[in-house]
Amino acid sequence: MIHRTVATLTRESKCALEGAAESLAAEAGHLGVKVTILQPGGFATGYSANLRRPEHGIADYTPVSEGMFRALHEMNTYAEINSPELFADVVWRLGQMDSPPLRLPVEPDAEAFLKLAYDARRREYDQVVKAGHHTVP
């Protein structure tokens, strides 16, 4: 569960980059520009061991930041954590593709998280459309 918490926080903090990548793909695709949004799961990179908490934290963010810091700090201790070589291999294979996908989940935990996130978005969309909130009365 901690692993999913990190993925959720990371995903939410990267929405602006994802939107920019989608726009670039749509606007420059006809020029041969290929864009892929890599959606990684957790990887044992040592990043978490070097992560430092801010000297002066903001109390309102503590409910979110504490779980994130704890999960990141513990990430390399998980037996199922992925090696960076897996990520490098996926990126290498991506570079060999003639028609790379716009989105590429990297590792099974990313797949599971993304399926949950996309399913939740679809349920919300269906509810809004069914309720008629998307139209002018």
What would the keywords be for this entry?
mainly alpha, two-stranded parallel ribbon, extended, disordered N terminus
Protein model, in words:
- The chain has 137 residues and is mainly alpha-helical.
- The chain is built from five helices and two strands; from the N terminus they run H-H-E-H-H-E-H.
- It has a two-stranded parallel ribbon.
- Helix 1 (2-13) crosses helix 3.
- The chain is extended, with a radius of gyration of 18 Å.
- The model is unreliable at 1-9 (pLDDT under 50).
The gist of it:
This protein has 137 residues and is mostly helical. Helices cover 55% and strands 6% of the residues. The chain is extended, with a radius of gyration of 18 Å.
Explain the layout of strands and helices.
Layout: H1 2-13, H2 15-28, E1 37-40, H3 62-74, H4 84-95, E2 103-106, H5 108-131
Parallel strand pairs: 1-2
Helix pairs in contact: 1-3
